[in-house]
Amino acid sequence: MATHDADPTRVLKGRDDTTCRVREVLDRVGSKWSLTVIHELGPGTRRFTEIKDAVPGISQRMLTETLRLLERDGLISRTVHPVVPPRVDYELTPLGRTLLDTVRTLLDWALTHIDDIDKARDAYDTRT
Hints:
Pfam families: HxlR (PF01638). Keywords: DNA-binding, Transcription, Transcription regulation. This is Helix-turn-helix domain-containing protein. It comes from Streptomyces doebereineriae. There is one protein chain. By secondary structure, the chain is mostly helical. It has one domain (17-127): Winged helix-like DNA-binding domain superfamily/Winged helix DNA-binding domain (Arc Repressor Mutant, subunit A, Orthogonal Bundle), CATH 1.10.10. 59% of the residues lie in helices and 11% in strands. It is built from six helices and three strands. A three-stranded antiparallel sheet has the order 1-3-2. The model has no long low-confidence stretch (mean pLDDT 89).
């Protein structure tokens, strides 16, 4: 696990390579599909169809792309079982598990404040 001695507030202020990479990671893990997939894998191993059924509105193509990107980033693992028909399981890696509390907190926050956000949007739309 990497550690950084630098001031964490500096990371997003500059225009250096680290800042760009941090933003790239945040874009990936902060996407609506990634957050939901990470949350769905929290309880344990799931098959593709189970994930798709648990994530309303996601297309097969988008789920495939999201899983590939999360696997590439080391957040999930993909296991292909040599059976007929083929069975593929997905699960969070130890690195992916480190995100679970943060993802749950963010999703809980959104659920708690969705009505407040709707009211703010309505007020804004009325003013403009």
